[in-house]
Amino acid sequence: MKPVLKVEDLSVILNSKKSGKVLVENSDFEVYPGECLGILGESGSGKSMTVKSFLGLLDKQFTAKGSAWFEGKNLMQEGKESLRSIRGKEISMVLQNPMTCFDPLYRIGNQMSETFATHTKWSSKEIRENSMDILKRMHIRNPEEVLEKYPHQLSGGMLQRIMIGLAVSLKPKLLIADEPTTAIDSITQHEILNAFLEIKEQHNTAMIFISHDLGAISKVADKIIVMNKGQIVDRGDFHHILHHAKDSYTRLLIEKRNAVLNRYQKVLGGAV
Amino acid sequence: MKQYVIKRILTAIPLIIVISFVCFVFINLIPSNPAEVALRVRQVPIITEEAIAEVEAELGLDKPYFIRYITWLFDCLHGDFGISYVNPSRTVAGELARCLPATLQLAGASLVMVILLSIPIGFLCAVYKDGIFDKVMRGLVFITTAMPPYWVGLLLMWLVAIKLDLLPTSGNGSWQHLILPAFTVSLSYISTYIRLIRNNMLENMKQDYVLYANVRGLPQKQILIKHILKNSMHTCIVAIGMSIPQLISGTIVVENVFAWPGLGTLCISSIFNRDYPVIQTYVLLIGVLFVVFNLLFDILQTISDPRMRKEGM
């Protein structure tokens, strides 16, 4: 099977006058259809930077090197316009803070339809039907009303589901989720994770799931890579990471999680 | 919404009363007897005590302070702003009405220049941040904010009207007369708004909604104009609204430089002649304009921002 995305030797450098600071160093990974790759690491480890670099979303002060093969194209060599047409359609992304990701001055319906208008030739009627369809599939009640709402009138979980719905609506080959559960409460987190599982099962979409939360990653990811200070320090499935992690940083992450889990169980046990 | 508007209007009323009182008190604190000045302006050869007393009685200056204020305020509410001390055949309202159109014309032209120049320039500076255009504009903005308008006016007059002989130096009558004074008035506002819009746009560019718009693959032009510019303009609306009365009052100096027959010229000559009713009414008018425009643009901002517009209001 051919990978959907194959990243080779990817580095991101912060340009400064004295010397370039390397933020991501020689990253290598690949994602296959229907597979979910989890990228685990604490904030500042270069997880988001890695995916932003091959999508052309980095600021001017960063330089990216290496290659990222997608559909026979090296994304690192593609022009701005070509990357733009790939973003949102063939590779879509879900971001961390649903509350601030929508423009506060426009209704949800407007922001959904501008996305469709960019990538498709649909009529306004088709756009509306599709928008309604997305909201229904994401289990959002009163879709007609929600389309007329402004972002501040909806909850974080709802906006996050709209973002996920919008991300899968154009049947992308690759879906990237950048800390999609960090900014929302744990009950909503559970729903959001289920939404991702559903997508994986129904559409056979390749996925990259970025998180610092081992629990969240363990639920959706088939394969995990661990990043620390811009380098990939460990890779394997959840079982491997949990029991045979070679890197001391990975083990630290797991120990911390286990410590929290143990305490949680003790507290629960004490209550029963 | 309705309730909010009514509340805002009601709170503006006491503010206007306070403004009227302050402006009455301050102008009457000017240490010279308006009756005496009036006699001098009317070219009475010998000014006697009796003549002063007579004029004081004629102008109502012999009554107590507070009574004079109340009478004045009451008359103002009826649209009667009194008669000029200097020229009793003219009413203050008539004088102001005669000079207002010229000032409004000047302020209006300045406002149009401010909007037409500062928005596109600020926009381009933000889009091509640190490019040559941005650097040159930043230098110009720095220089023009530091230059006082009367000096700019004189410089422009010397360069454009005398050296290059492109436009008339002073007076009014055609649109050509309007260009130099309007540009002089608007220059410092243009600089301010270029900076404001540029910085607002740069601030907005860092927001998550811009990243998400990029993630969705929206075209750059659409992101810049539909999303970033609109969000940046939004915070500028109130500032621009507040500068309308500033533009009207700020024409005083420039009108005198360019001999523009508007409110500013009238105000300056009234100050020299101690023509209190005219000065009082002028100050009151500007004060009321500030309150009204502040109110208007506050309400406008509330209406245009969905976050401030509460449901069912």
Written overview of the protein:
The complex is a heterodimer of chains A (272) and B (313). Chain A is an alpha/beta fold and 272 residues long. Chain A is built from eleven helices and ten strands. Chain A has one domain (5-271): Rossmann fold (3-Layer(aba) Sandwich). In chain A, strand 4 (62-70) and strand 5 form a beta hairpin. The N and C termini of chain A lie far apart (50 Å). The relative contact order of chain A is 0.16. The mean pLDDT of chain A is 86. By secondary structure, chain B is mainly alpha-helical. In chain B, 32% of the residues are buried. The interface between A and B is medium-sized, with 28 and 23 residues.
Task: List the defining traits of the structure above.
heterodimer; A: about 270 residues; alpha/beta; Rossmann fold; six-stranded mixed sheet; four-stranded antiparallel sheet; B: about 325 residues; 2 domains; about 75% helix
